[in-house]
Structure formats: C-alpha cells, structure tokens
Amino acid sequence: MEQEVFNKAKEAKEAARKLSFLSANEKNTALNAMAQALRDNNDYILQENAKDVETGREKGLSRALIDRLSLSPERINDMAAGLEKVSSLDDPVGVVESMWTRPNGLQIGRISTPVGVVGIIYEARPNVTADAAGLCLKTGNAVVLRGGSEAINSNKAVAGVLAGAAGAAGIPSAAVQLIENTDRAAVNYMLKLKDYLDLLIPRGGAGLIRTVVENATVPVIETGVGNCHVYVDNEANLEMARDIIVNAKCQRPGVCNALESVLVHRDIAAAFLPAAAEKLKEAGVEIRGCEQTQKHVSWANLATEEDYSSEFLDLVLSVKVVKDIDEALDHIYEFGTGHSEAIITDSYQKGRRFHREVDAAAVYINASTRFTDGGMFGFGAEIGISTQKLHARGPMGLKELTTSKYIIFGEGQIRE
Amino acid sequence: MEQEVFNKAKEAKEAARKLSFLSANEKNTALNAMAQALRDNNDYILQENAKDVETGREKGLSRALIDRLSLSPERINDMAAGLEKVSSLDDPVGVVESMWTRPNGLQIGRISTPVGVVGIIYEARPNVTADAAGLCLKTGNAVVLRGGSEAINSNKAVAGVLAGAAGAAGIPSAAVQLIENTDRAAVNYMLKLKDYLDLLIPRGGAGLIRTVVENATVPVIETGVGNCHVYVDNEANLEMARDIIVNAKCQRPGVCNALESVLVHRDIAAAFLPAAAEKLKEAGVEIRGCEQTQKHVSWANLATEEDYSSEFLDLVLSVKVVKDIDEALDHIYEFGTGHSEAIITDSYQKGRRFHREVDAAAVYINASTRFTDGGMFGFGAEIGISTQKLHARGPMGLKELTTSKYIIFGEGQIRE
C-alpha cells in the first residue's frame, strides 16, 4: 500500500518538473484530447461505473450517495465540456503580477508558477476525478487523486482514460495519478508525504476534512463548513429579504454556501417573520427559532444553542430575533464559520460596517449567500471553496492552484 | 503552563477582532508611541537584558549567541526606529486588490484583511519581540510571542513596554502577548491551538522549524533553510562571476540567502576557478570541490555528497564542475532548497531558461543571492523569508501578514 502511494507521488513529482514549463498551447491541446477521450470511452466508463453503482446498492448506500456516484452519458459529456472550458481559460502560469526596479538597477518581478504536486482526497463523486485532473494540468501541477472506495472502478476508468490521452498528447502521463488502494491507511500515508506532495485539498464531508487537517504535515487547504447567516436589518426591504432568504435556504440546501441561520432585527420581526415563514413553510423548511421567533411563527420549534452552531445542509433553518446590528455581529462572530454572511439593509452605514467587521470569505450586502462559488464569481472554474485564511480564501479558481516566484534581472549587482 | 498559553491566546483573539478595523492613523500613532516608550525605558530594558546576558555567560553560551542576545542603547534605538519605519509604510489592510461587476450586476471586490492572531516562535534575539509586535500591529493582527529562555527577561521588558504604550495609545493591550513560560511544552501546546491562532511563524534554527512544521495543526509559514547556488555559465563575464560569488559567500555567511555552492561550466573552469579561488582564500573560505575542481584549485578539499546538501552558514563553499546548463539545473533540482539560485551568463536564452526552470523563491540572473530580503526587495519591512510555496514565498513583508475577503454589493440578486 505504502509502496503504491510512494511510487505514484514520486512519479508525479518527476512529472511536475516538466509540467511547470509547458506552454499554454501544449496544455490546452492535451485538455481537449482528454475531453474527446472521455466521450470516445463513454461506454467503457459507464460499464465500470455500473459496477460501483451495483456494489453501492448491495451495500445499501443512501439514494443521495448513489445519485452522486452514478454517471450517465450526459454527466460524462459534462465532464468533457468542463475540460474544454478549462482549456479555453487564460493560462494562469507565467503571469507577471508585478515588476519593479530597485535603486541599484535590479529589476524584480513576481511571476506565477505551478505549486508542484497537488493531492486531492475526495469521496464518492467520480466527476471530481476529471475536474481535478483538468484544473491541475491547466495550472501546470501534477495531481495525485485519491477517491473513495465507492467509486473506485469509475475513478480508475476515468483517470486511466485521461492519463492515456494526456500521454498521447505529449504530456507526461504520470501527471495524473490515481491511488487505487482505498484503505484509510493510504490516506494517512499521503498526509505525511511532505517531500513529494506540495498541497492537499480534501473534498468531502466534515469528518474527512478534519482528519486531513489534523494529521497532515503536507500543507492543506481546508474547504467546507459553512454556517451562513443572513441578518435582516430594521432598514431592510422586507420583500427583498424574504426572496433572498428563500433562495439562499432552498435553491440547493445541501451545499456549503446555503443559508443556515437568519437574524432578524426586533423592530421588524412582526412585519417580516410571519410572511417570510409562510414562504419557507411552502418550500418545506422547518424553522427552529428563539422564543421571540415563536411569538411570530407559531409553528416554529424552539432552537437550542446546538441549532445555532449547526450546518444543517437540509431544509432546516435557525432563526433569532436580535435587538440591533451589534447583537447580529456578535452572533455571527460567535457562531459563524467564516464562509458567507449577508446583511439585508438600505442603510449605507450599516452596510459598510457589516462589510468591514464580519470576518468571512464572502460578505454580502443585499444578495444571496449562494453566490459564493467560482462560477458565480466569474472564475470560470472552481476546485473548492476555502474556509481558511492562508493562501486562498473563498472560491478557488485557477490562480489559487498556483504560487509565485521572484525573477531578478541584474548586471552584476552585489550587496554592500 | 497550558493555562497561561491558552489565556493569552484567547485574549489575543478577542483583541484581534477590534484590531482588524482600526484606522491606519490609530495604528501609526500607537507604533510611534511604542517607539518612544522603548527609548524612554532604555535603562530598564538594558538592566533586564543584563540579567539574561549574565545567565547566558554562566551557562557558557557561545560568543555568537551572547552577541545576538545583547542589547545596547544603539540596538534599542534601532528597534524604535524600526517601529517608526513600519508606521511610515502604507496601510496594508483595506486595500481593494481588484473589483469587478458580474453580468447580474453583483459587484465583487477582493479586499485585504488581517490574518487574526499570529504566533511567533523564536530564539535568542530580543529585537524580534519589537519587530514582530510592530509588523503585526501594522497589519491589524494580534501577536502571541514566544521567545527563547535565554532572552526571557529582555523579552518581558520589551513586550511589557510595548503593550503598555499600545494600551495607552488606545490599542487593546492584549494585542501584544508574550508567553513567559519557556518550557518546550508551552511551544508544543501553542502548535495545536488552532481555534485561537491563525498562523505560526517559527524564526530560528532548523531544529525549531522542523518541530513546528511537523507538529503544528495551526497553519505554519516555514522560513529558513537556503542551500543557495550560483551557476557560472561558459558565457559568463568571469570578473562579474567572481565578484558575485565572493559577495554572496562572504558578505554575511551566517544567513539563509548566503551562497553555499558554486557550479562551474567545464569550458571556463580553468580560466575561472584559480583566480576566483584565490579571492575566496583571501576571505578565509574553505573550498570543498569535486575532482575537477581540485585540478584547478590544488588546496581544495574533496567534496562529499553531504557537502552538496549542506547549508554551511559559514566560510565554507562547495564547488562542482558541470558539463552544461542541464547538469547545473539537475544539480539545483536535486540539492536546492528552493530559496535563492543564480546564473551568471551573458546568454539571453540560458538566462531565460534558468528563470523558467528553476523552482525557487528567488531566481537571479547576474546578481548576488544576498538580495533575497524584504529590505533589498523594497518591501520596507520583513517578517522572514518563506521557503514554502503556499500563501507566501520569498521575503515576507506586510502584505504577507494579511489575507483577503470578498465584499459583495448587491441589489437583491438571488441565484437562479
């Protein structure tokens, strides 16, 4: 087991040295060839995927998990289209972000470069295999993929097709590596491979992410938990507030940028809560509120401290009536996870305060938290949403998969 | 012990919330007051420092360590001047790095913000106490300082004076915290305080840095090891090459950007090595070279594989004759630590190749590696030189002590 992980990480590192100075044309040609290969191997991939789905059913996986796991011609085409989309984006490598000249004549430039070898540890979605491979190739990184056991046959098929197509297009095929061993021990070993892996990105549930963050010596970018709030100020447009809350809670409740908790200024609680709750009820949302909330929404359950800390990822919403923006800011400081937070207000001053004082990856005035997403931000692609502060914060696009180096042009300068 | 570390980290985190939205004027006023307080307390600080120096002498610390530890009126004035310099720099917080409008009208901006609480773990230099406190305050971060036992009285004096002056200037005095317990266990406990510390920067020897990197769950920025090379190409100006090598090796041999290893193209080895070696010998440098080197420098010792891997931090230099730039690039790939690497050449094409293919924080054409430094790069201040790839690479100035968040301006946008 260790041998497989070690060998593949080592091969990836060797490949990374070459990848780092491929031209954009070479990478884009390979990405398009990889997309075509996915389409050409549609039947093979579906056949391997069917094995996983069957095993999953036998094991009694939930319907939601089976759905995440299942591929279809449409989903395979989506993966291919994703690779083509990535190929169409500007090359994120070799961008001179700034350049200046020192008094001694030294010219110093900061230029973007690949990170090296990126490890992706994920769960049951086989599409992550293609997405991550494409994003890493575009950014000149080698990738070591480690998907969940549920999708192993699908992942082997997809990664094999991609690595083959990349190799045929002149890219080192070791650039895309899949760890076939699905034991937890293989992950634990990966977490410590500091000499071969430059970055780990865990994509999956809270348990997986915690394990990776707590045990890795390889640098990690933490993605995930979003206990997102909307604060409805007393100067809010109440209709706008209602529409944003319904959207942020219901449009896709199972994702990290979905709304989990609403804070309502007490002066507008009576005017706002009954009608807003009605709309939420229609959408099937359970409300867990404070006692004040219950006065306005008779059918609301009583919220516990635990509820205010919860990322429900479901049609459940906690609600609290607050006396002013200060209490809202304190509540968000205490319970927020630094993902996405919104204020609904027409007050210039309170909007500015919210932007300044809330410490989160994305801070909104008068918009749905659901926009915290690489696509919605206009990045063209996304490898995840970082909830940590170092290197990347918020939606991560291609730029976040690069680092930089300084290139210096001299004419013999020495230090006095 | 744990209680002290926990309480101080917790207080720092509370202070950080307020620090994050102080105006530049408030921070700069405090920095200047802190500088003045150091000067006003010159005698007290010297008296406390004398205790450490005396204990150090009793313990038989090396002369170099005693020198690092010792303060003088001049050094105290330097610390004060450093704080004033930092106060004169532009505020790194609140910089809108980019802002754009999406097709749906959402306006999205990326704005720099403090990281939160920064832990600095360092050894015997009391000036780090003032430098780190100043840089962290300027960037709106709280700081938890943990210096070595050798300097504990000096650190308590300096940190106490700074925290008092900051408090008097209206800054939460909990913004500058010093851990007074000097047991190794206090460091180990700090490394895991992920809920209170946002970033750790170890400053010191390789052993300290390794301990921190391998055991911390708090994100770390690794600083330090520099096995720096100069490759003298066959198209080099040999006089320039000699001057750069002598400068990079001898100007200050004990620092991470000092030269450790020279690679010489075989075609110019005979023309270059004897004269260059003569200059190095005059400066007291021991040469450890390959067999080819020994042919040109009779007094050179034979280098081992170990020598090529070593960061000597001393007047010792490893030398290797290589057959071309490819061998030089391979050697740097194998032995380099990704700090600072230089080529001396007049070839446009080889210069470009070196810039592109060498994976290091700073890659030079025709200049000394000694320029890898926040001051020399023009950053105005430096908290260390990162040798890792994430978040910060190379000299870290104020910007590297900040993170960013997205601020979004909407008019009721919801996601379709």
Largest inter-chain contact set: A-B, 64 and 64 residues
Instruction: Characterize the biggest β-sheet of chain A.
Output: 7 strands, parallel
Please report which band the strand proportion of chain A falls in: under 5%, 5-15%, 15-25%, 25-35%, 35-45% or over 45%.
Answer: 15-25%
Helix content, binned percent of chain A: 40-55%
Would you report the number of β strands of chain A?
16
CATH class term of the largest domain in chain A: Alpha Beta
Largest sheet: spatial strand order of chain A: 10-9-11-8-7-12-13
Q: Quote the distance from N terminus to C terminus of chain A.
A: 54 Å
- Report the oligomer: homodimer
Structural class based on helices, strands and sheet pairing of chain A = alpha/beta
Uncertain ranges of chain A:
none
Structural account:
Two copies of one chain form a homodimer. With 416 residues, the first copy, chain A, is of the alpha/beta class. Chain A has two domains: 2-222 and 391-409, 3-Layer(aba) Sandwich (Aldehyde Dehydrogenase, Chain A, domain 1), CATH 3.40.605.10; 228-375, Aldehyde Dehydrogenase, Chain A, domain 2 (3-Layer(aba) Sandwich), CATH 3.40.309.10. Helices cover 45% and strands 21% of the residues of chain A. Chain A has 16 helices and 16 strands. A seven-stranded parallel β-sheet of chain A has the order 10-9-11-8-7-12-13. Chain A has a four-stranded parallel β-sheet with strand order 5-4-3-6, with helices on both faces. In chain A, helix 2 packs across helix 7 and helix 5 packs parallel to helix 6. The mean pLDDT of chain A is 95. Chains A and B meet through helix 10, helix 15, strand 13 and strand 16 of A and helix 10, helix 15, strand 13 and strand 16 of B.
